[in-house]
């Protein structure tokens, strides 16, 4: 059961990392191309959806945390990363989403080490 939860957690981290990379791609696209008002509306809608997914993930993790205060204290920046970037004032916070990519790579390294340890113990 614990292994399934670990795999589910890893899948969640990879999905969130994908959303971060997609969000960064949208930012680069928006800054490097001439976009029509219709395209801006689509990008803003996608960004708002991504922000809601980040917010749902953050509050779900907060709800299930053993120590909510400690969780919030160490993950507060993830809450800031949930803010939609539909205006210039909040677009600077997009950098915080990049930190999620770093978190995914760290989780992937941990998962790989855990998997190797599990296989060596199983032999």
From TrEMBL:
GO terms for cellular component: membrane. It comes from the Bacteria. This is Ion transport domain-containing protein. The chain crosses the membrane at residues 12-29, 41-65. It is a multi-pass membrane protein. It is found in: Membrane. Gene3D superfamilies: Voltage-gated potassium channels. Chain C (1.20.120.350). One of its GO terms (molecular function) is monoatomic ion channel activity.
């Amino acid at each position: 059961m614990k292994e399934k939860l670990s795999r589910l957690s890893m899948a969640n981290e990879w999905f969130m990392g994908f959303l971060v990379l997609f969000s960064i791609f949208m930012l680069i696209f928006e800054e490097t191309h001439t976009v029509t008002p219709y395209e801006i509306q689509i990008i803003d809608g996608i960004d708002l959806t991504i922000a809601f997914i980040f917010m749902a993930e953050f509050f779900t993790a907060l709800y299930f945390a053993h120590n909510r205060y400690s969780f919030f204290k160490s993950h507060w920046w993830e809450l800031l990363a949930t803010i939609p970037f539909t205006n210039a004032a909040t677009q600077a916070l997009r950098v915080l989403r990049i930190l999620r990519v770093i978190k995914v790579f760290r989780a992937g390294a941990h998962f790989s080490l855990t998997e190797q340890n599990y296989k060596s113990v199983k032999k």
